[in-house]
Design brief:
Elements: H1 4-22, E1 29-31, E2 38-40, E3 45-48, H2 55-58, E4 64-67, H3 69-73, H4 79-89, H5 94-102, H6 108-125
Antiparallel strand pairs: 1-2, 3-4
Length: 127
């Protein structure tokens, strides 16, 4: 049986690929949601509006979008740009909903279930 750490690493890698490919054009390029620069999907990162430390929103597609390495590493410096993207992209209340979800407790058993489900769904999408 895989550990939670192993499952998290696998889920992160697969989910990141799903997010980056979701936003890539026919040439494989995706745009950073904070600065607007274009990168090949393999060179851009999966950025999280709400920190990935918050497990309940870590694998929520509404919380994850392409970001260049610079913007993703300086997330707090680009908070306004990311917030503007979120407000333009999603219905009113989405940010509030994600914030509320991010603070809900998740047990180890629930984490395992979520991770296994995320891995299975991502593998299905990437076929």
């Amino acid at each position: 049986m895989k550990t939670l750490t192993q499952l998290t690493e696998e889920a992160d890698a697969l989910f990141s690929k799903v997010v980056r490919l979701k936003y890539a054009d026919e040439n494989g390029n995706a745009w950073c949601v904070t600065c607007g620069d274009s990168y090949h999907w393999k060179e851009i990162q999966n950025g999280h509006f709400i920190s990935r430390d918050k497990f309940n929103t870590r694998y929520d597609l509404r919380n994850c979008h392409p970001q260049c390495g610079t913007c993703n590493s300086k997330h707090n410096d680009n908070r306004d740009s990311y917030r503007m993207f979120m407000l333009r992209t999603y219905p009113a209340g989405t940010i509030t909903e994600l914030l509320a979800l991010s603070f809900k407790f998740v047990s180890s058993l629930d984490k395992r279930i979520i991770l296994e489900k995320t891995i299975k769904e991502c593998k299905s999408i990437l076929k």
